[in-house]
Amino acid sequence: MPPAEDSSVNSTTTRKQRKRFKRKVSIKVKRIAEKTKKRKEKANVTPLVTKYWLQRYDLFSKYDVGIKLDEEGWFSVTPEVIAACQAGRCAGAGVVIDAFAGVGGNAIQFAKVCSRVIAVEIDPEKVALAIHNAKIYGVEDCIDFIVGDFFQLAPFLKGDVVFLSPPWGGPSYKARQDFTLDLLKPKDGHSLFQAAQAITPNVIMYLPRNVDVLQVSELSWLSSPPLDIEVEENYVRGRSKGITVYFGDIAFQ
Ligand SMILES: C[S@@+](CC[C@H](N)C(=O)[O-])C[C@H]1O[C@@H](n2cnc3c(N)ncnc32)[C@H](O)[C@@H]1O
Description:
7-stranded mixed β-sheet
């Protein structure tokens, strides 16, 4: 057993060491917090989108290479793993029309596996961001970006698959028990589906996880004979993020 004196010296030293260690840790924590704050400011992360910023690598695996998003882009982009899965259904397809392209989450994944993508987006600033993001993934040459309203452009577009990822009306969609198709923006789900059907029967819709699936399945009856339909629930890290509905030849592939 060490003498009592020694033990008091030891405990004083230990206390000092502990204090110094605590100070070091708190300085490190402060530095990390400052760095995180600066990175968030640089990426336009407002309090509303902080939650999505924390999932940034789920949204774009190449986020750190310089991906850019605006506020709406943060909460409306399709997570990369889901976009890749949706694109996988179209592998080898000729032309895919991404009717609501946003900041490019889906268009980039389609461009990886299809020969051509027509990306339509009404907001010119989002188109600029989508072009920038497509460059990061090296697929900008496979995408024709069009600034415009899909409903006005639809009669002039030709393609093998139409992908519909319309606005869900912001994060408040989650509060609803049953999300009905009339809540989609800028027009209801029927109008949206009909505009796409005029181009091709092969349509993909990406919808909220609380969408009324029965109502969605009724869309297949708008065509004669009724279209094949497949409904898929999409998860990221075990969390349900949305529902993808495949109509026509791309169902059950
Ligand atoms: C849910 S976001 C699409 C996100 C996209 N799938 C992605 O992964 O980045 C819907 C987009 O539709 C655009 N939009 C709204 N009305 C439109 C219209 N009439 N024609 C084309 N784009 C429209 C919005 O500006 C918004 O960027």
